[in-house]
Write a structure and sequence with these properties.
Blueprint lengths: L1 H44 L3 H38 L13 E2 L2 E2 H25 L12 H42 L8
Antiparallel strand pairs: 1-2
Helix pairs in contact: 1-2
Length: 192
């Protein structure tokens, strides 16, 4: 009984190793496919010698993708044979699959999105600091405004005050006349 469990542990360990290699190779294949699509976009936008250089980079990447696909197929066959030896599929806890967001893994996507969002704020802050900070400088009034304009403004205000006083006296006089006239005139009731 003891020997049976020891002999069974070796295929289980081997199966765990094969599944870990399978998971790693699948992630590598996934990254290569993403890189190939990015390279293809660059090739579509390039011309001339730059395009030829990018195409030259595509050839080894395609062969790496083919090799990874073949390696995955071999590892899957090996895992199936080991599961058959053990009699039933064995769940092996490996690395969780990577989640991709727009072709980037989560940390790359978070770094890229935070850079895109914060870069305009940083630039605006730097421009503001370069222009002299948040405070606007108040310049003193020119000296020619202090003397001539203030004298004319003062004279205009005095003239307006005199005219307003005359208007007020006229209204008081008119009100006094209207109230005296009312007391002199008898009231007449008219039918409506």
């Amino acid at each position: 009984m003891m020997q049976n469990s020891t002999s069974q542990q070796q295929p289980i360990a081997e199966l765990a190793l094969v599944k870990a290699q399978l998971s790693s190779t699948e992630r590598q294949l996934e990254n290569l496919v993403v890189e190939r699509s990015r390279l293809q976009q660059k090739i579509d936008g390039a011309s001339g010698n730059a395009r030829q250089g990018l195409i030259a980079q595509m050839v080894p990447m395609s062969s790496s993708i083919d090799n990874s696909g073949a390696m995955i197929a071999r590892l899957q066959v090996q895992a199936q044979e080991l599961e058959r030896v053990l009699g039933a599929p064995v769940a092996v806890v490996g690395m969780p699959p990577r989640d991709l967001i727009f072709g980037y893994n989560k940390p790359e996507f978070m770094a890229l999105s935070s850079m895109v969002l914060l870069l305009p704020l940083v630039i605006a802050f730097a421009v503001r600091m370069a222009r002299g900070g948040a405070r606007k400088r108040v310049e003193p009034m020119p000296s020619f405004m202090d003397q001539d304009r203030l004298v004319r403004l003062e004279q205009a205000m005095d003239a307006m005050a005199v005219e307003i006083e005359r208007i007020g006296e006229g209204q008081r006089y008119q009100t006094k006349l209207m109230s005296e006239r009312r007391s002199e005139v008898p009231r007449v009731n008219t039918p409506h």
